[in-house]
Amino acid sequence: MQEPEKIALELLETEQAYVSRLHLLDQVFYAELMKEAKTRKTVPEEVVKMIFSNISSIYQFHAKFFLPELQKRMEDWSCNPRIGDVIQKLAPFLKMYGEYVKNFDKALELLTAWSEKSPPFQELISDIQKREVCASLTLQHHMLEPVQRIPRYELLLQEYVRKLPPTSPDRDGAEKALEMIFMVAKHSNAAIAEMERLQNLWVVYQRLGLEDDIVDPSNELIKEGPVQKITHKSSTSEKYLFLFNNMLLYCVPKVIQVGAEFQVHLRIDVDGLKVRELRDSQLPHTFLVSGKQRTLELQAR
Length: 301
Description:
alpha+beta; 55% helix; PH-domain like
């Protein structure tokens, strides 16, 4: 057996194993926990839906479309030795994974929280985990499988392209398929990065007291940290700066931290902002920030 055929066969075998994992997640865990939520109300239906995200669509796609196509192709390998075209059909649908991957951390948090909150919910999960089909692995472990599947396709396909003879009829198709899988993996990583950015931004806005004219999802936080405001040569007072891509927020830490941690004293546009280091032997690390709204003399730690 030639190397490319071996790799194509490995793709088929791992796909068969993967589909049985998806079946376990969707048709066993999700179906039984959903039934429990509907009949015994031990956990809200919404929570079960959020834990499993769009696993049903992912399962249907692999079981009814991708796996059968792959099986058919491997049966005809002797007269049509290629998988590039099959993977090209698959690639656009892998964008479905963006939603699953983005939701993954939240799903695990919900699973942990509700397992503590609802003993019957935890009990049902434990019962399913004891079945032979689970191979002594936890629900969390099985939930990780879809997250790892796209990188797995990427690795197998890279190896396949590497082992293809230059004259192979699948050369063009496989290279194009690899490019498409690569873009999908990037898409799914970008979705995670964007979600993390928005979460971090939201935390900053909460610390600032959610001021209307500051809360904007398109802002990017570049740096934050404490500074001293120099009032006159002998005295300083503690302040805090948040530098965004479009504004510098000059804040005062609140003594009583109810709700917000800081009060915004001044907002200076980044447009036209100048920063100049001051050489002062008595006051090291001092600098001047001057913008349209104000000029401040500050000292860093």
